Amino acid sequence: MMVAATIAAILATFAVGLVDSALRSEEPHLQMIRVSFQPTPSFAGGTYFDAEVAVDNASTATAKGCYAKAYNHLLFSEEIDETTELGSSEQFDLSPHSGYVPPVSVYLADLSGEALLGGGLRAPVFFRVECENAESPEEGMTVSVSGPAPGSATP
What we know:
Elements: H1 2-25, E1 30-37, E2 48-57, E3 63-73, E4 80-88, E5 92-94, E6 98-100, E7 103-107, E8 114-115, E9 121-130, E10 141-147
Antiparallel strand pairs: 1-2, 2-6, 2-7, 3-4, 3-5, 3-9, 8-9, 9-10
């Protein structure tokens, strides 16, 4: 009797695991592949950097209402300042087993970083992809950018 109850409990746990796994496979699974920046501030008097965020959907479900977003990554900390969004892509959907490279304009005036000798600023920027029908993965990418100090003019 005890053996039968143990076997039934094991089978029930296995069945719940299979159902849970099947449900998860119907959710988008986003992976950030890379983030690349243009070498110099691109427009509006050098107040923005253009970044390209390569993202892949490794599931069988379409990711809907997605944005690639940039946030301050606080210096000397593991903390991400999600209260200040530095930039966002336009909204996009991502088909199953496909990729996309949305452009993101990162506003330099809100960067929190370290001053560079001779002028300018270096700061870590955290990128993440967020979608309406998928949980935002905690992992993202932090990229260090260098540019003019906020409020300074570019030649």
